[in-house]
Amino acid sequence: MAPGEKIKAKIKKNLPVTGPQAPTLRELMRWYCLNTNTHGCRRIVVSRGRLRRLLWILFTLTAVALIFWQCALLVLSFYTVSVSIKVHFQKLDFPAVTVCNINPYKYSAVRPLLADLEQETRAALKTLYGFSEIESRQRREAEPWSAAWEGAQPKFLNLIPLMAFREGETRRATDFLTGRKRKVSGKIIHKASDVVHAQESKEVVGFQLCSNDTSNCAVYTFSSGVNAIQEWYKLHYMNIMAQVPLEKKINMSYSAQELLVTCFFDGVSCDARNFTLFHHPMYGNCYTFNNKENETIHSTSMGGSEYGLQVILYINEEEYNPFLVSSTGAKVIVHRQDEYPFIEDVGTEVETAMATSIGMHLVVVPLGSQVEASRKQLRPGLVGSITPDLETESFKLGEPYSQCTEDGSDVPIKNIYNAVYSLQICLHSCFQTKMVERCGCAQYSQPLPPAANYCNYQQHPNWMYCYYELHQAFVREQLGCQSVCREACSFKEWTLTTSLAQWPSVVSEKWLLRVLTWDQGQQIKKKLNKTDLAKLLIFYKDLNQRSIMESPANSVEMLLSNFGGQLGLWMSCSVVCVIEIIEVFFIDSLSIVARQQWQKTRKWWAQRQASSVPQAAHGHRGRDNPVLDLDDDPPTFTSALRLPPAPGAQVPGTPPPTYNTLHLERAFSNQLTDTQVPAES
After folding, report:
1. Residue 430 contacts by C-beta under 8 Å, 6 or more apart in sequence?
2. What pLDDT band is residue 584 in, cutting at 50, 70 and 90?
3. In whole angstroms, what is the distance from residue 422 CA to residue 516 CA?
């Protein structure tokens, strides 16, 4: 390095340095506070007095904390939605309407298949209550247990034993088949009763289910014998019907000509050709109006009952199975054309000898506003019932605003229904898949998965125990179906306003029933009664469509604008100040810390190297004299004043200059003539 450069470097090293190149963090922070545009930081440095400085430190820290808090709230509320409401009038498409008779199969057609089951059911009633048919409200004394079983040995009670528990006894029960007391092993699961009793029953009825190796058993008890016998009957009924071919079951159920007596839509007559057959395992033949298989989707241009769907249904109470169903009427469900009708879950019951009017409103609302509890069922026996009514069309924003799915393709559950995805379809498909995996067969009331068979005694003797155990796990959310299945981002749902009126009236009953009997002479071979008929009206109450749509409540531009507003409000700061803070507090601070650590490391290494070199013999030499120790780089005037005096040595004074040396002597004694300077004139 040249001498001049060394002088500059030494001067630069000794001069005080501020700003980002400050040697310590303290000087860097002081320089930042004096030069920043955030007023609070500057006031901390320039304020006089400790109290003022302390107050400004508190104000500044509070402002910074508020900025972080407000910005965190902005980030957390970024993925929120806003709801907008629009009301407009337009022509509306009519929904699909599926109608089923509560009784799935005509009793005269299915009775040969259920003869043995019914015989044992009647014997169980006679054993428990003293009668096989309910003829009086007065309960008679029960017959001896063994007297009820005459003839062939029962097989259904051997498969699933019915038992009666006395009050206070949990491990001993009376067997319906033998009439003897027996020990009960396994856990006891009590099912709540749908029948309300004024007094507590002294007897509890149930049945026992066991696994394949009969080592694990469970007893399912009911506080009412009605529920116990109906549940017991239903299990055997599903087992028998699971072995009947589908074509035979369709023939045993009601045809469209038998179920539909009259039909009108939008003031125009319709018939069975406007309905599509849909066979349900538990409700038999159902018929759908305005299905997707039709060439055109019907629509309505006016509101009111005259412009909706009007049908008269033939219920035929004489053909009802007395042990399978305990109510009379039909079930109806309103749904989308491509949606599976879960009539057993959300169907509305239609009572006989009544005119049931179902009004609809079209309201397009977001999925978050959906209320599942608004789906109500009309129970028979009520004079009139009104429930809140909306037709719900949901359009929900997907990720990252919610976890909904567009079509179910990203849900790891195979859709076993021939319908569009929904949360209900996913849950049922998940349970049926688990049923096939663990029990080896499928439950009868749901569609069959690929390469699976319905459960029956011959192939799966103890499938009922597996089914009940799996159902208990499903209810307790132990199968994982509720965590895997997700809501659909868009779907329609109709909730209904239902009202009842007596039909036909007393004055019109005679002529109306005669005319309907004459019209249905080919299909119905008897005189119609009012208890065999039910009238159903489904219509839009108005055509005012109320659309409630979801949209993102925030955007990136709005988020940045809110950030800037918070910074300006609390700290009088801008984006440039934020960049400056990042540079000073992160880049410059880290560089100072790194430089200090590097200097410490170099110093430590130099000391280590010096200690490892052996020292030479001590002797005074000219270069060891501190006075004669000359630096390669001559000191400047300022630095020379800072040099310490040599220990024990007198600093020699400066001798006076020899002025003779200042005379210039010519290098040559004689000068050439051509280089002489001419004399001035």
Report:
1. 413, 479, 480, 481, 484, 485
2. confident
3. 41
Terminal CA-CA length for the chain? 52
Q: Give the predicted TM-score (pTM) of the model.
A: 0.69
pLDDT score for 379: 32
Query: Do 295 and 323 contact (CB within 8 A), yes or no?
Result: no
CB 219 within 8 A of CB 207: yes
Distance of CA 127 to the CA centre of its chain: 50
What's the pLDDT tens digit per position in 613-630? 665 555 555 445 554 444
* pLDDT band at residue 277 using 50, 70 and 90 as cut-offs: very high
Question: Lowest mean pLDDT: which of 105-114, 354-363, 396-405, 642-651?
Answer: 642-651
Contact between 285 and 249 (Cβ < 8 Å): no
HEC readout, 393-462: EEECCCCCCCCCECCCCCCCCCCCCCCCCCHHHHHHHHHHHHHHHHHCCECCCCCCCCCCCECCCCCCCC
Lowest mean pLDDT among 263-277, 380-394, 416-430, 553-567: 380-394
How far is the C-alpha of 225 from the C-alpha of 232, rounded, in Å?
10
| CA dist list (Å): 164 to 126, 235, 236, 332 | 14, 18, 19, 38
Q: What is the 3-state secondary structure (H, E, C) of 322-386?
A: CCCCCCCCEEEEEECCCCCCCHHHHCEEECCCEEEEEEECEEECCHHHCCHHHCCCCCCCCCCCC
Cα dist. 532→100, 333, 668 in Å?
14, 21, 152
pLDDT above 90 coverage of the chain, percent:
17
Q: Are 406 and 475 contacting, i.e. CB atoms less than 8 angstroms apart? A: no
The DSSP secondary structure of 542-584, one letter per residue, reads --EEEEEEEEES--HHHHHHHHHHHHHHHH---HHHHHHHHII
pLDDT at 289: 94
Contact 492, 237 (CB under 8 A): no
Residue at 99: amino acid letter: V
Task: Supply 354's token pair.
Answer: 């009544």
User: What is the pLDDT at residue 120?
Assistant: 86
Q: Structure tokens of 366?
A: 């977001």
CA–CA distance, 22 with 28 (Å, rounded to integer) = 6
DSSP letter assigned to residue 586? I
User: Is 556 exposed, middle or buried (CB count within 10 Å of its CB: 0-12, 13-18, 19+)?
Assistant: exposed
16 or 351, greater pLDDT: 351
d(CA 314, CA 327): 15
Encode burial over 336-355: b for 16+ CB neighbours within 10 A, e otherwise.
Answer: bbebbbbbeebbbbbbbbbb
For 557, phi and psi rounded to 5 degrees?
-65, -40
For 86, phi then psi, to 5°, come to -130, 140
* Amino acid, single-letter form, for residue 616: A
Mean pLDDT across the stretch 156-168?
Answer: 76
Q: Which class for 375: exposed (0-12), middle (13-18), buried (19 or more C-beta within 10 A)?
A: middle
pLDDT-based confidence at 362, cuts 50/70/90? low
The pair of structure tokens assigned to 593 is: 């810390």
